[in-house]
Known about the structure:
Blueprint (H helix, E strand, L loop, with lengths): L6 H12 L17 E6 L4 E6 L11 H11 L6 E6 L12 H6 L4
Parallel strand pairs: 2-3
Antiparallel strand pairs: 1-2
Protein name: SUF system Fe-S cluster assembly protein
Pfam family, one: FeS_assembly_P
Amino acid sequence: MEQEIDTEALGEKIVRVLKTIYDPEIPVDIxxxxxxxxxxxxxxxxxxxxxxxxxxxxxxxESLPQEVEERVKxxxxxxxxxxxxxxxxxxxxxxxxxxxxxxxxML
Length: 107
């Protein structure tokens, strides 16, 4: 019998990894900062991450998506990872979690 694929559990594991990646200019992880719009996992363990950057001219526009892809691909369960950057909708401070706002003294 084929092992049932628990994409939800893998998605949660991926989110834990994303919470270890920090924006170099802001002392908050990219997940709590609201840069991750979606994490999709299919039954072949391929992952697609839809994310944004704080600005289109972000100094880590090239390196941050690469870091996300490499960190997620380092998980044993993940076959492949594709990171797609979007600016629709554009990032705003409202996308930050309460935890991030508290960390940055915005609450």
